[in-house]
Amino acid sequence: RASPARKAVHQSSQQWSEAGTADHELELPQQLGHAWLSISRLLRTVLYVLNLRTLLMCGAACSLVYICTHFKIRFTLNFDIVALGTVFPLVFGVQQAFTRREKALAMISALKGCCLGLYFCHRDWDVSEGMERAALLANNDTERAVLARRLLSRFLYAIKDYLVYVSDYDSLQEQRLLYNHEAAWGLRVAGPHTWAQGAPPRESNNGSVKAGDPSDLDA
Q1: How far is residue 124's CA from residue 35's CA, in Å, rounded to a whole number?
Q2: CA-CA distances (angstroms) from residue 156 to 10, 111, 117, 147, 148?
Q3: 93 φ, ψ to 5°?
Q4: What pLDDT sits at residue 216?
Q5: Which neighbouring-strand residues pair with 210?
Q6: If you ran DSSP here, which 8-state letter would residue 198 be given?
Q7: Cα–Cα separations (whole angstroms), residue 216 to 40, 147, 151, 187, 191
Q8: What is the 3-state secondary structure (H, E, C) of 151-209?
Q9: I need a labelling partner for 24 at 20 to 30 A (CA). Which of 80, 167, 184, 188 fits?
């Protein structure tokens, strides 16, 4: 017969193993979700390239090559066709990209200039001590100046974070699809009677509060 201490050790080890298994099962949806996300991106890229227009163009090109080879048709190809069909669109696209870049830089410079003007206004237009405010001009240590500088700095940093934000998802719809996949897997692993996944607690008839069912979220 096993002693009580040995039984306690066995129960604790079993609980730890069950907890580790549950954590591993909860990590599975994230790994499978990212794998499914990569596969869906690859399939979407392939389907974007292999559309009806590209298939018709490939079929026409292969047919013309076969006809010219079979009937021994020869002709001189003018380089202007290649220049107008390939080089000109490429150069035009690069030029438009640089134009958009310069326009964005000009707008960012104008925004920084407006913020600097607002800072000078809040720093120097302080009439709380009367119109004789010569001592307050060009003073960056006043309460208004410090508060304005802090708010404008936070505003500019927020714009910077928005412009250079990098996400693992191609779109918001893709992020929602992956989140729904992980949430469904977590509910299936943890069980339907836990409200840690987002179901709110509900009150029973006798006044006690018990865990809500995930189906309550639909209501």
Answers
A1: 57
A2: 58, 9, 14, 14, 12
A3: -65, -40
A4: 41
A5: 202
A6: S
A7: 31, 46, 42, 14, 15
A8: HHHHHHHHHHHHHCCCCCCCCHHHHHHHHHHHHHHHHHHHCCCCCCCCCCCEECCCCCE
A9: 167
Report, as an integer, the average pLDDT of 198-216: 42
Q: What global pTM score does this model have?
A: 0.46
Which residues does residue 209 pair with via DSSP β-bridges, in sequence order?
A: 203
Phi/psi of residue 73, nearest 5 degrees? -90, 125
Question: Per DSSP, what are the bridge partners of residue 203?
Answer: 209
DSSP 215: G
Name, of 36-40, 64-68, 88-92, 183-187, the range with top average pLDDT: 64-68
How far from each other are the two terminal CA atoms of the chain, in whole angstroms?
54
Q: Which residue type occupies 115?
A: C
The token pair that represents 196 in the structure block:
């840690």
Of 2, 10, 23, which is closest to residue 189 (Cα–Cα)? Answer: 23
Query: What backbone phi and psi angles, to 5 degrees, belong to 209?
Result: -100, 130
Radius of gyration, alpha carbons of the chain: 33
